Amino acid sequence: MEYKVGDRVIMKKKHPCGENLWEILRVGMDVRLKCCNCGRSLLIKRKDFDKNLKQVISQ
Question: What Å distances lie between residue 12 and 48, 55, 59, CA to CA?
């Protein structure tokens, strides 16, 4: 599946702040995501991202 910087995605697991909507900041072997509620960012492996992805919302 193709992802672009700026796309918003819904993940299966929620962030500790209670939000499961994330914005993609970087795509490569790793994916950097930013929480749309609290603004915290994290870097996860592409394989884990694909596994935990629920839905892609285009920009």
Answer: 11, 9, 20
Measuring CA to CA, how many Å separate 46 from each of 12, 27, 37?
Answer: 15, 8, 22
pTM, two decimals, is 0.88
Supply the DSSP string of the chain, one letter for each residue. ----TT-EEEESSPPTTS--EEEEEEESSEEEEEETTT--EEEEEHHHHHHHEEEEE--
Both tokens assigned to 40:
């915290």
| Average pLDDT score over the chain | 93
